[in-house]
Each structure stands twice: as structure tokens, then as C-alpha cells.
UniProtKB/TrEMBL annotation:
Keywords: Lipid metabolism, Membrane, NADP, Oxidoreductase, Transmembrane, Transmembrane helix. It is a multi-pass membrane protein. GO terms for molecular function: all-trans-retinol dehydrogenase (NADP+) activity. Its main location: membrane. It comes from Oppiella nova. The lineage of its organism: Eukaryota, Metazoa, Ecdysozoa, Arthropoda, Chelicerata. This is Short-chain dehydrogenase/reductase 3. It comes from the Eukaryota. The chain crosses the membrane at residues 6-26.
């Protein structure tokens, strides 16, 4: 009995593999689900990617709630969403997602003011961009709190309603930094790995509970010109435009894709890391400009960061 079950499981693995390859040739737009009249909650919606996603959801008839710590950023997003579709509801809340009590409180407010959340987009993020010894301790903690730990609070706030209806979607904006480590990004990469691990584990829990209606998507984009990584250098792969990335993310969400890497080539990172000998992977990292990428990073505060502790130019990689 058991062995025949295993046989069926192997057939299904093969079937999903072939299906995945064939679906590559089917335009995604033919498989888009409707988000009309759904409520989407986007953290970090006062800027960059979060704002671009808010506008796209509104254009598809979804009601939009945005959270951020930046009040004027939120106000701008609200105006843009109204302009994109005056027929949908849009509301903004100043909420620091590192404060879990505030997250629960604000989520309850959203439910009272608008409705239960159908789609949660964990998008808010921060980056320090310094070598380990140059990052103040409290900044390391903050990176983890914003980029990873907050996902526990936001998901716990909205999941009960999704479970009750067996319907919903949880989206985590991670990064290619959640697939591979990189210089001057210890805290950032570690927090993004954490976000990826959280999302993958949650997905297994949902499957285990047979909550097949609650979808999840993890997104791993390369550098985007939003200002968050201002000053970064990208010698081989060009930096991405926020509109392009937002379109790719929407296509992933609307087709219930579990894993969205932007650009596509980034899907190979995890594979390369495991099949190449480690030293070959280091060389590939070097050729792709990995060591220089963050050299002139200034970030959102516009200040050139001094890396005092490690001299970046002593590299003699063999
Ligand atoms: N820009 C890139 O190159 C890049 C690449 C890969 C992944 N990402 C990820 O994409 C997401 C969006 O980034 P972006 O490029 O739009 O950056 P962004 O700086 O434009 O937007 C991030 C937003 O998060 C908000 N935020 C920060 N801390 C917060 C907190 N404690 N509570 C609530 N909101 C908070 C900020 O105010 C800001 O509006 C982030 O998770 C980022 O890590 C960005
Ligand atoms: C807040 O948002 C405004 C409007 O988009 C922007 O000009 C400003 O730089 C943002 N502030 C911070 C600290 O990111």
C-alpha cells in the first residue's frame, strides 16, 4: 500500500515538473485571478515597490490599505491610488511594524474601518549597507525586526480570518539577498534568509492543515532603482526599474506563484550555489562584481558610509 502511494507521489513530482515547464510557454495573463473588491494590505506602502504595487492592485479593482512610518509618503500613495482608480477604497495608517502591539492594534482598526484583509504584502524593508563591525547593534536588531520579525506579527494578525474562510494570500518581498550572502550586507542578507525561511515554513503548515485556499508567494528581486540602495554598483546585471519589478510581482501573485525571482536568471542562484564547487561560486561572485556592489553605497540617508573596520581593498581572492 505504502509503496504504491510512493509510486503515485513520484508520478506527481514528474507531472508537476513537466507542467511547470509547459506553463512557461503559456502567457501568464491568461491565468490571472481576479482581485476585484478584495482588500490588500501593503506594509512599506509609502514608497518604492509598495507604492507601485498599491497602484497596480487598485487598477485591478482591489481596495488598498497602506502602512508605513513615513506619513507624507503614505499621503502621496493615497493620492496616486485615488488617481489610478477612484472607485476603490484606499486608507493609510502610520504604523511602525517593529512594534507588535501596534501591528495588532492597527490590524484590528483596518478590520473595523474597511474589512478583513484578503491579501497581505510584507514589503517594508531597511538596509544599513556596512561591514559587520561598523553596524551599530541596535541597527542590526532593527533590520531583523523590519525585514523578518514583523512578518510574524502581520501574518498572525490577518491569518485567522484567512483560515476561517480558507481564502487569502500572503506575499513576502524578500530579495536575492535571501538566496546568497554578500559583502556589507550581513544583517540584510541574514534577515532576508529569515524572511524566506519563515514563508517556506508557513507554506508547509498551510498545506499540512489542508488550507489550500490560502496562497503564499515569496519574491526575490535583484537591485531596484527605488533609492533604498542608492549608490550601489551593478557591473553585469543591470539594476531593475520599480515598475518592471512591480509588474513581475503582480504576475506572480495573480497566478498564485509560490516563488518569484526577478530577473528570471536569479532562479539559478540557489542551484549554482549547490552544484558549483564553493571556490567556483566565489569566482562567479567576483566576476559578477559582488565585492564592489556596495562600495559606494549611500542608501536613503544619502550619506557615504565609512567602512572603518575592514579594508575593502585588500582582496586577493584565489
Ligand atoms: N531596492 C532594492 O534594490 C531591493 C531589492 C530587493 C528587494 N528589495 C525589498 O523590497 C522591499 C521594498 O523596498 P523599496 O526598494 O521599495 O524601498 P523603499 O525604501 O522605497 O521602501 C521601503 C518602505 O518601508 C518603510 N519602512 C521602513 N521601516 C518601516 C517600519 N518599521 N514600519 C513600517 N514601514 C517601514 C519605509 O518608510 C519605506 O517607505 C523591501 O523589503 C526591500 O528589502 C529591495
Ligand atoms: C518620506 O516620503 C517623502 C514623500 O515620498 C519623501 O520625500 C521622503 O524622503 C521620505 N522620508 C524618508 C525618511 O524616507
Amino acid at each position: 500500500m505504502k509503496s504504491s502511494n510512493n509510486f503515485i507521489a513520484f508520478l506527481l513530482i514528474f507531472y508537476y515538473w513537466i507542467r511547470g515547464m509547459l506553463l512557461f510557454f503559456v502567457p501568464k495573463s491568461l491565468r490571472f485571478k481576479s482581485v476585484k473588491d478584495r482588500l490588500v494590505l501593503i506594509t512599506g506602502g509609502g514608497s518604492g515597490l509598495g507604492r507601485a504595487l498599491a497602484i497596480r492592485f487598485a487598477k485591478r479593482g482591489a481596495h488598498v490599505v497602506v502602512w508605513d512610518v513615513n506619513k507624507s509618503g503614505l499621503e502621496e500613495t493615497v493620492e496616486l491610488v485615488k488617481g489610478a482608480n477612484p472607485d476603490v477604497k484606499v486608507k493609510s495608517y502610520v504604523c511602525d511594524i517593529t512594534d507588535r502591539h501596534l501591528v495588532y492594534e492597527t490590524a484590528a482598526k483596518v478590520k473595523r474601518d474597511v474589512s478583513a484583509v484578503d491579501i497581505l504584502v510584507n514589503n517594508a524593508g531597511v538596509v544599513n549597507g556596512k561591514n559587520l563591525m561598523d553596524i551599530p547593534d541596535e541597527k542590526i536588531v532593527q533590520t531583523f525586526q523590519v525585514n523578518a520579525i514583523s512578518h510574524f506579527w502581520t501574518v498572525k494578525a490577518v491569518l485567522p480570518d484567512m483560515m476561517a474562510r480558507d481564502s487569502g494570500h500572503i506575499v513576502s518581498i524578500a530579495s536575492v539577498a535571501g538566496s546568497t550572502g554578500s559583502c556589507q550586507l550581513t544583517d540584510y542578507c541574514a534577515s532576508k534568509f529569515a524572511a524566506v525561511g519563515f514563508e517556506e515554513s508557513l507554506r508547509f503548515e498551510l498545506l499540512n492543515a489542508n488550507l489550500l485556499g490560502v496562497k503564499s508567494t515569496v519574491v526575490l528581486p535583484y537591485f531596484i532603482n527605488t533609492g533604498m540602495f542608492a549608490g550601489f554598483k551593478s557591473p553585469i546585471l543591470p539594476a531593475l526599474e520599480p515598475d518592471y519589478v512591480a509588474d513581475q510581482i503582480m504576475a506572480g501573485i495573480l497566478t498564485d506563484a509560490e516563488h518569484v525571482a526577478v530577473p528570471r536568471i536569479c532562479y539559478t542562484l540557489n542551484t549554482l550555489k549547490t552544484i558549483l564547487p564553493t571556490k567556483a561560486f566565489y569566482k562567479l561572485y567576483e566576476v559578477l562584481g559582488g565585492y564592489e556592489v556596495m562600495e559606494d553605497f549611500v542608501g536613503r540617508d544619502g550619506a557615504k558610509h565609512n567602512n572603518n573596520y575592514i579594508n575593502n581593498n585588500n582582496r586577493k581572492v584565489k
